[in-house]
From TrEMBL, chain A:
Pathway(s) served: tRNA modification; 5-methoxycarbonylmethyl-2-thiouridine-tRNA biosynthesis
Main location (coarse class): cytoplasm
Protein name (record): Elongator complex protein 6
Gene Ontology CC annotations of this record: cytosol; elongator holoenzyme complex; nucleus
Keywords, alphabetical: Cytoplasm, Nucleus, tRNA processing
From TrEMBL, chain B:
Protein name in UniProt: Elongator complex protein 4
Keyword tRNA processing set for record: yes
Keywords of the record: Cytoplasm, Nucleus, tRNA processing
Pathway note: tRNA modification; 5-methoxycarbonylmethyl-2-thiouridine-tRNA biosynthesis
Presence of keyword Cytoplasm: yes
Subcellular location: Cytoplasm; Nucleus
Family named by the database record: Belongs to the ELP4 family.
Biological function: Component of the elongator complex which is required for multiple tRNA modifications, including mcm5U (5-methoxycarbonylmethyl uridine), mcm5s2U (5-methoxycarbonylmethyl-2-thiouridine), and ncm5U (5-carbamoylmethyl uridine). The elongator complex catalyzes the formation of carboxymethyluridine in the wobble base at position 34 in tRNAs.
Origin superkingdom: Eukaryota
Species the sequence originates in: Mesocricetus auratus (Golden hamster)
Gene: Elp4
Annotated Pfam families: PAXNEB (PF05625)
């Protein structure tokens, strides 16, 4: 986790809000550093994490997490982390006959399926232990990323349904958190993606939007992060929003106010 | 930390040794003690010909066949990733990059897998450019470094902003080990071809008129190609799961003109294609196959023909490295005096961040290429840069 981002979000691993949906959005830049942040953050906060990793392999996340001070293999072995490696299971589903239903079962289906099998996987992995005594604080679902599901033949409505089920289960019933990354291609007119993004933005409590700079590539400022705190229920208080620029380093991401990059000053 | 880490079934780092692994184990590749760079300091460093570890994170890299492009991509193409070449409008220059990639594989002794719907793989291999021998290679390097004016028969070179950056360097590794130069005016010698190992997938040979049984929600053609690739990877042991075969070589996969109507896909013909997800699903599963094997893939795709721009952006998001070629033929830039030395622009749209938060993006974003009589060079578009600074952005 990045300490500076924790300060901006006013959270620490010991004191986090529960029952929240956080939407991560990347537009014209790579927003995966946010995923790495939340993964290591919730593991350090002693939560049970179900990570649906559709984009990269386990070793990729593991190596980056080690730089941030968390070992994913150790977390997996002690049962704190349930890791679904999308790339590997897609190969298994396609080339090896599977008996029991898999999490990514929709890959085998011809018509636009639904994510019921994936939801069942999430539900089973975050099931509270019957004995009642669990060392983990609350469950967290982390998805990287939802736009890939659209590329795999699902419609935006199916993905929104899946998120609705997960939110109902994890946020409302189990008082946990859900974090999901969605890609935003502003130029490309991807309507399905826009539906997904707008739908999730309205449901989420916190939106973190990593954008590339409008002026193009810069070596010292890699992008801009917009933080938006939302209240899904309409209240009189307005939503609070902050914008920072950031630079990604090897083990850390530094944030600064717009135009205040150390390289410029 | 590095010594104790295990590589999961993922993108490989230097020092990974392919070991037999059951399907239940999490990692096919165990990382042994990490050695320092290319001098092989570790006790059991696996060294595959034609690869080198990345200086940034120890990622195993292969050359794309164009040392200039290797530098732009941060040292080379990472093993286990997909390089997407967005074809130029008349498909004149992208086959060159395709052939460079394959020729590099032959020179390094890698196994090739060539897939095409248009040409027979054997014909494609016959047309590969000839590698420049070491003595000539060194001579060409000297020519490139010393020449200020373009010579009539100098190859494509990448020159950076002259004042700020050093002249193109091949890197600490000598050109005979990683990244070679090729002469497009000559064909690859037959003895090199004969000694190489390759597999070809020519789509018309694999078409059956009826799709039987489960269709697996991919179009028949894409499914067959995927199965062909998976079969080669498994039977030749590139993923370390075959107990009989222990492979210590790289598989270079090249797929040409992917997504064009010849592959049975209509995304280039109509905007509202019903099966638009078949291509993206193929790319996803291909990526899964590559991540768990010692292979690297180049795909050339006519993205300028894809009617629905959403598909183009999805394809780009699913590929690890994306390079776009834009040739000046037929456009107004052909007569633009600023571009008279060049044949087109090259856009590095995406570079992967593998095992890392950061990536090696180059500072120069305006790059142009030219195909001289023998070689293909990439240059920082310095004339355009100067004009942009002076007059504003009139070129876009």
């Amino acid at each position: 986790m990045f300490p500076e981002l924790n300060n901006l979000l006013s959270t620490t691993p010991d004191r986090t809000e529960q029952g929240k949906l956080t939407l991560l959005c990347e537009a014209k830049t790579d927003g995966s550093f946010l995923v790495h942040h939340f993964l290591s953050f919730y593991l350090k906060a002693n939560c049970k994490v179900c990570f649906v990793a559709l984009v990269q392999s386990f070793s990729h996340y593991n190596i980056v997490a080690q730089k941030l001070g968390v070992s994913l293999t150790a977390a997996r072995e002690r049962g704190q982390l349930v890791f679904l490696e999308g790339l590997k299971s897609s190969v298994d589903i396609f080339f090896r006959a599977q008996e029991e239903p898999q999490a990514l079962q929709f890959l085998r289906e011809e018509s636009t399926g639904n994510l019921q099998s994936l939801y069942q996987f999430v539900r089973d992995s975050l099931k509270p232990v019957d004995s009642g005594e669990t060392p983990w604080k609350f469950p967290v679902l982390l998805v990287d990323n939802l736009s890939v599901l659209l590329s795999l033949g699902l419609g935006a409505v199916a993905v929104l349904d899946f998120m609705q089920y997960c939110r109902a289960r994890v946020c409302c019933e189990l008082k946990g958190n859900v974090v999901a990354l969605v890609h935003d291609d502003q130029d490309a007119k991807d309507e399905e993606n826009d539906i997904l993004l707008n739908g999730l933005s309205h449901q989420s409590h916190l939106v973190l939007r990593a954008e590339g700079l409008a002026t193009g590539f810069c070596k010292d400022v890699h992008g801009q992060l917009r933080i938006l705190w939302r209240k899904p229920q309409p209240t009189s208080r307005r939503d609070r929003s902050l914008t920072y620029q950031y630079k990604i380093q090897d083990k850390n991401v530094s944030f600064f106010a717009k135009g205040m990059s150390p390289a410029v000053l | 930390m590095a010594a104790a880490a295990t590589c999961g079934a993922g993108v490989l780092s230097s020092g990974c040794v392919a070991s037999t692994a059951g399907r239940s184990s999490t990692s096919s590749f165990q990382r042994r003690t990490k050695a320092s760079g290319a001098d092989g300091g570790g006790p059991r460093l696996l060294s595959i010909a034609g690869t080198r570890p990345s200086v940034r994170n120890g990622q195993l890299l292969v050359s794309t066949g164009l040392p200039a492009l290797d530098q732009l991509l941060g040292g080379g193409l990472a093993v286990g990733t997909v390089l997407l070449i967005e074809e130029d409008k008349y498909n004149i220059y992208s086959p060159l990059l395709f052939k460079y990639f394959l020729a590099e594989g032959i020179v390094n002794g890698h196994t090739l897998l060539v897939a095409s719907a248009k040409e027979k793989p054997a014909d494609i291999l016959q047309e590969l450019p000839a590698p420049l021998l070491d003595d000539n290679g060194k001579k060409e390097l000297e020519d490139i470094h010393n020449s200020k004016t373009p010579e009539p028969d100098v190859s494509m070179k990448i020159a950076w902003r002259y004042q700020l950056l050093p002249k193109m360097q091949v890197g600490p590794v000598s050109s005979s080990r990683f990244g070679h130069y090729y002469d497009v005016s000559k064909r690859i010698p037959q003895e090199l071809l004969g000694s190489s190992k390759w597999h070809g997938f020519f789509l018309p040979e694999h078409i059956t008129s009826d799709l039987k049984g489960e269709s697996c929600s991919l179009s028949g053609d894409y499914m067959k190609l995927l199965q062909f690739i998976q079969n080669i990877i498994y039977t030749e042991g590139f993923d370390g799961s075959n107990p009989q075969k222990k492979q210590k070589n790289i598989l270079r996969i090249g797929i040409q003109n992917f997504g064009s109507p010849l592959w049975g896909d209509d995304i280039c013909c109509t905007e509202n294609s019903d099966n638009s997800h078949r291509l993206t699903k193929f790319l996803y599963v291909l990526r899964g196959l590559l991540r768990t094997s010692l292979s690297a893939c180049i795909i050339t795709m006519p993205t300028h023909l894809i009617q629905n721009k959403a598909i183009t952006s999805r394809v780009r998001n699913l590929s690890d490295t994306v390079v776009g070629l834009e040739s000046f033929i037929g456009s107004e830039k052909e007569t633009n005096p600023l571009y008279k030395d060049y044949h087109g622009l090259i856009h590095i749209r995406k570079i992967p961040r593998l095992n890392n938060l950061t990536c090696d993006e180059s500072d120069v974003k305006d790059l142009a290429f030219k195909l001289k009589r023998k070689l293909f060079t990439i240059e920082a578009d310095s004339s355009a840069l100067a004009t942009i600074w002076a007059l504003g952005d009139l070129l876009r």
